[in-house]
Amino acid sequence: MVEKGSEAVFLLPRPFMSVSFAYFDHHATTPLCLEAREAWLRAHSEAWMNPSSLYPSAGRSRRLLEEAREECAELLGCEPARIVFTSGATEGNNAVLRWAASRGGRAVLSAVEHPAVREPAWQFFGDGGVCELPVDEKGVVLADVLRAELETPGTKPAVVSVMAANNETGVLQAWRETAARCAEHGVPYHCDAAQWIGKRPAAGLAECAWVTLSAHKFGGPKGVGVLIIPAGTFSPLRLRAGGPQESGHRAGTEDYPGVAAMAAALAARAGWAADEQARAKASAWRDAFESRLMKHLPGTQVVGSGALRSETVSMVIVPRHPQLKWVTRLGERGFCVSTGSACSSGKGNPSPVLQAMGIDAEAMGRALRFSAGPETVEADWEGLLEALLDVWEVLESGVRDRPKVDLSRL
Ligand code: PLP
């Protein structure tokens, strides 16, 4: 499987080229794509000067930064003035919640938001200032409850925040409808699109008043992102105090190389995200994996099954053994997988996402998340299935397992 074009193979030294290895944690972060790497290196050699400096050679950095803004705007379907470069979705989400709290009132968010939305909401709006929208057992926000919140007289929310695609389960929310409904009621709608961009088409997202994303989720570098702000936001948002960069919205020397790499990754992934055939192939591989896993490991449950989900992700609850045992042993077989944010063996913090879907703490402790990327091939899914079945046998037999790869060399 390794020789079949997996980008993650570059992470392995040569002697390991023949072992099974597959990266199934793209929801955590993705490898830098070639286009982004080239753009980053080019920017550092040709346009490393401070875009705010006044001599002509620095003007090149300024011009290229604005060209990158135009490119991102075109790919995201909005005017360049709506693009504010940030350090990623966490910063963008905090900024939106802080701005909304400064208007007073309350925040309405889904119960399955990422902590980068939930934590600032509770911090800035305080107890009694946050209304969490419930989801059904598939993880989909209940549209009727949202409608009732918007229609309650005299309590117009300062912001509604519902993500596009869930980081743990991949379940998609109806953000188009939410954007339209919020616009009808004159309520600003924020969409955390960190797990949507690069996986599904961006068309229409800019209909949301605020959108946040992170470059490293779609093949760009870490520490760079975009906040789309509402059209006609003329007074500076002052996300950070300091110089007048980003039209006064965010102080600090702009990271042009990071921005150039992000724009290159966005362009590179836009083709894949809009390619329905590629996405159909990805979901066929994922679906085949899930049905074979359920057949061979009776008692396995697919989380979010029956809802619309990102084609590249699968969250399952496996039988009997706690998730960390699986993650460790799969890692020893060269498969990088995650627990999502679920708790371990019922200890620690339970996942609010799975909790909102009605999954109990014990089952949460057996949740595993496999998130593939554009470079994942069918053989990677097949290898993952084989490795899971192998781990199952080892766990059931109680035999002391040995790592299948020399982890010290990775
Ligand atoms: N929002 C979602 C849905 C995410 O999945 C993540 C990261 O996992 C974030 C926000 C935070 O992104 P970052 O850590 O790049 O700021």
| Strands, count | 12
Looking at how many chains there are and whether they match, the oligomeric state comes to single chain
Radius of gyration: 22 Å
* Bound heterogens, unique: pyridoxal-5'-phosphate
Helix-strand makeup class:
alpha/beta
N-to-C CA distance: 17 Å
| SSE arrangement, N to C | EHHEHEHEHEHEEEHHEEHEHHEH
Number of DSSP helices?
A: 12
Helix content: 25-40%
Overall pLDDT metric: 91
Main sheet characteristics: 7 strands, mixed
pLDDT under 50 segments (min length 5)?
1-19, 342-346
- The shape is globular
Can you put this structure into words, describing what you see?
- Strand 3, helix 4 and strand 4 (130-133) form a beta-alpha-beta unit.
- With 410 residues, the chain is an alpha/beta fold.
- The chain has helices spanning 34-46, 56-76, 89-101, 115-125, 143-151, 175-184, 256-274, 276-296, 323-332, 352-356, 361-364, 378-397, and strands at residues 22-23, 83-86, 107-110, 130-133, 159-161, 189-192, 210-214, 225-228, 301-302, 313-317, 335-336, 367-371.
- The chain is 38% helix and 11% strand.
- The protein starts with 21 loop residues before the first strand and ends in a 13-residue tail after the last helix.
- The protein has a seven-stranded mixed beta sheet, with helices on both faces. Strands 9-10-12 form a three-stranded antiparallel beta sheet.
- The relative contact order is 0.16.
- It is built from twelve helices and twelve strands.
- The structure holds pyridoxal-5'-phosphate.
- Residues 88-90, 114, 116, 163, 167, 192, 194-195, 214, 216 line the site of pyridoxal-5'-phosphate.
